[in-house]
């Protein structure tokens, strides 16, 4: 029985790890393509600019604003440019990695992804760089999660890794982002009753 449980848990984790696109509703992620298919790149050379995108995956309704903090850590890097997505978008958060953005119109939903921010990054060393997403520096809602607004209402969102402490994207890292689902032992045990 223990062997069966172990195999089942490995299979559940493996199926989550190999998903090409984040299938969570209202989920923030950092990607290296605008459709949200690539969140891990290897072999990125130093002093060569590359695009990085903040996307809202699978929005549940119209969205015309967002707030979060995106923190890159690890390899020394330059952020050469930051471009807000959306029509007439304005960021009122002055913190280095923080965003509190409102747009004049709803963000376009292209294939289940809304483009919120485009950066141009450049590495200074060939070492791993990780990205994490958490709440805004001055959050509109309690908790550690990012928030969006649309149709006059705030919505708390998730992050692609499933945890604000886990990286959502990697550059030149032996690790890969893995979406996590929170389940208690009781929930898993109840499957076998």
Tags for this model:
disordered N terminus, mainly beta, 2 helices, single chain, 11% helix, 36% strand, disordered C terminus, five-stranded mixed beta sheet, 13 strands, eight-stranded mixed beta sheet, 193 residues
Task: Describe, in plain words, how this protein is organized in 3D.
- By secondary structure, this protein is mainly β.
- It is built from 2 helices and 13 strands; from the N terminus they run H-E-E-E-E-E-E-E-E-E-E-E-E-E-H.
- The chain has helices spanning 2-17, 185-190, and strands at residues 27-31, 40-41, 50-57, 65-74, 77-84, 90-91, 98-102, 113-123, 129-134, 147-150, 153-156, 158-159, 169-171.
- The strands form 2 sheets. Strands 2, 4, 6, 7, 9, 10, 11 and 13 form an 8-stranded mixed sheet that branches.
- Strand 6 and strand 7 form a beta hairpin.
**Class inferred from helices and paired strands:** mainly beta
What gyration radius follows from the Cα positions, in whole Å? 18 Å
Strand content: 35-45%
From the spread of the alpha carbons, the general shape counts as: globular
Mean pLDDT metric: 85
Number of H/I helices = 2
Low-confidence runs (pLDDT<50, min 5 residues)? Answer: 1-20, 180-193
Percent helix range: 10-25%
Give the total of beta strands.
Answer: 13
- Biggest pleated sheet: 8 strands, mixed
Order of helices and strands: HEEEEEEEEEEEEEH
